[in-house]
Request: fold
Amino acid sequence: MSSALTRDALEAFWMPFTANRQFKNQPRLLARAEGMHYWTPDGRKVLDGCAGLWCVNAGHGRKEITAAVAEQMATLDYAPAFQMGHPVGFELANRLVKLMPGDLDHVFFTNSGSESVDTALKIAVGYHRLTGNASRQRLIGREKGYHGVGFGGISVGGLAGNRKYFDSMLLNTDHLRHTLDLEHNAFTRGLPEWGAHLADDLERLVTLHDASTIAAVIVEPMAGSAGVILPPKGYLQKLRAICDKYGILLIFDEVITGFGRLGTPFGAQYFDVMPDIITTAKGLTNGAIPMGAVFVRKQLYDAFMQGPDGIEFFHGYTYSAHPAACAAGLATQEIYEREGLLTRGAELSKAFEDAVHSLRSAPNVIDVRNLGLVAGIELQSRPGAPIGARGYEALVKCFEKGILIRTTGDTIALSPPLIISTAQIDELVTRLGEVLKTIA
Ligand code: PMP
Reply:
């Protein structure tokens, strides 16, 4: 075993999204990180090909974040945000709303992407109630969507793995068709030309349920966790237009696409489509301290602020706007701005695109998809084996070869820190290509 931990010491921790027994037989431990790299306990260097878990956008071990958190903890370690406030919370809110397009000018703080999603869904339903449309309670997600693991998120989400044990616990949900289509779009560079009409699926759901029952549609502008699924050109614009036609709110789940992944601060700017709510987490604090945030348009906020005092939104978390998280968030935004990281993906995207598409001829590759600094490399599932067997083998072998990748089923996702150099892009893709040649 390549670690100082004994097999017994690996028993108590029930790990998320992990087959624990399988892991114990073949543990992969990360003990230290700096810049573009992790190190294993026995000192092996691993190039980070997925920014931790799509979150460490400014690279690892940023001393400014550590210092800001340490100072904040020494000054004000904790303070409630219910009927109380603290300066760093307001400072972060003011800074973040400046990054947002249009009038998405109010922010509600959470601790994770899952919490951001559930918060957004509640805001959408609450908004309709407050504006005299109490029958609008239905929430529409999309097949293959991932919106975290709260009951709200799995109900609007469309990953079978997430739903099979719990089904749809939230009533009044439905799903649009997904937009992945290898027959028309395999090996497209950037956004697929084919498939904008798939947004018309919302018309079908309106016909089925009636618009007066639908509160909101939630989609990831680019679906990450299902294996990097890109919206066809014009798809999101069409979805927006149909939402407008029927008074349905549009929520973009930007937990992955937020904070520079596509080469713009948010996906809404990349696609030039204004949602009514944006959910975020991950890159908000560079992954250093758990934090999420939900951005809402003025009109929604105003609906909750009727009357001289405003209406209490009966929702929040003990750790909403935790001072340490706010300090990490501010230091992170400082770095993003100073180093131009929120737009660096645009500069690197061509080099990244060329590199990942060179894997087209590698064994078992049936699709390569990319946008900004994210890519999906889909492998043919191994005949007769469970879906994901080939993907898992790739993950294990990549780790042995010194690169960290993410897999969903048999699709490999790359989403490196936005500080990556072109030489490191080549290194990442070259090593991945070498691993793919060894997979039967
Ligand atoms: N939404 C999206 C789009 C995500 O990618 C994720 C996490 N990968 C989540 C929600 C859930 O975030 P968390 O794991 O922080 O709860």
Remarks:
- The mean pLDDT is 96.
- The longest strand covers residues 365-371.
- DSSP finds 16 helices and 15 strands in the chain.
- The pocket of 4'-deoxy-4'-aminopyridoxal-5'-phosphate is lined by residues 112-114, 117, 146-148, 220, 224-225, 253, 255-256, 281 (CB under 6 Å).
